[in-house]
Amino acid sequence: MALDVGARRIGLAVSDPLAITAQGIETLQRKNKRTDLEALAKLIRDYNVTEIVVGYPLRMSGAASAQTGHVEAFAQDLEKKFGLPVHRWDERLTSVQAGRVLRESNISIEKRAQAVDKLAAVLILQSFLDHRAMQKGLVSSDEEPHP
Predict the structure, then answer these.
(1) pLDDT of the residue at 137
(2) What is the Cα–Cα distance from 38 to 116, expressed in whole angstroms?
(3) How far apart are CA 129 and CA 123, in angstroms?
(4) Would you write out the chain's pLDDT as a tens digit for each of its 147 residues?
(5) Which of 7, 13, 39, 90 has the CB geometry, 3.0–4.6 Å to 125, for a possible disulfide?
(6) What superfamily in CATH does domain 2-135 come from?
(7) Where along the chain do its domains lie?
(8) Which residues are CB-neighbours of 146 under 8 A, at least 6 positions away?
(9) What φ, ψ does residue 143 adopt, rounded to 5°?
(10) Would you say 40 and 48 are in contact if contact means Cβ atoms under 8 Å apart?
(11) Phi then psi for 99, rounded to 5 degrees?
(12) What was the pLDDT predicted at 105?
């Protein structure tokens, strides 16, 4: 499961059972830490999640930002609460890319705002899955991974 953690919403995505493709699921409207973790616990059970990928917000230079600290604290809460591996994955440009894809799709601004967090989570998870497949030699670096 991938999370695109924001102050007001958490975009969510899960992979297929073979960990090849990422699919977006509902976006979680944040309330407070306890409620957020309870909602995530239900999704983790429902989707049989075995590891979590958290989009890690870095500046373009690679340096940490104020948001990086908030996301790191949340990632640590996830590790404590669920006892699952929590991977921090560089999310630079995923929200920008998600916004561009949604603008090009000609959907309304209202629907675009609702979909950007989910799509960002999909992009985070897909890049993580593709990277893992290349590391395992399932996809050569000169070959396009199959989404």
Answers:
(1) 81
(2) 23
(3) 10
(4) 999 999 999 999 999 999 999 999 989 999 999 999 999 999 999 999 999 999 998 777 878 888 899 999 999 999 999 999 999 998 876 766 777 777 787 777 777 666 888 888 999 999 999 989 988 886 555 544 434
(5) 13
(6) YqgF/RNase H-like domain (3.30.420.140)
(7) 2-135
(8) 20, 139
(9) -105, 140
(10) no
(11) -60, -40
(12) 79
Q: Match 């073979």 to its residue by tokens.
A: 18
HEC readout, the chain: CEEEECCCEEEEEEECCCCCCEEEEEEEECCCHHHHHHHHHHHHHHCCCCCEEEEECECCCCCECHHHHHHHHHHHHHHHHHCCCEEEEECCCHHHHHHHHHHHCCCCHHHHHHHHHHHHHHHHHHHHHHHHHHHCCCCCCCCCCCC
Tokens representing 113 are 């705002």
Residues 6 or more apart in contact with residue 83 via CB below 8 angstroms = none
Spatial strand order in the sheet of 52-56: 22-29, 9-15, 2-5, 52-56, 86-90
What distances in angstroms separate CA 33 from CA 37, 44, 86, one per listed residue? Answer: 6, 16, 17
In whole angstroms, what separates CA 43 from the centre of its chain? 14
CA distances from 45 to 1, 41, 78, 126, 144 (A): 11, 6, 14, 21, 32
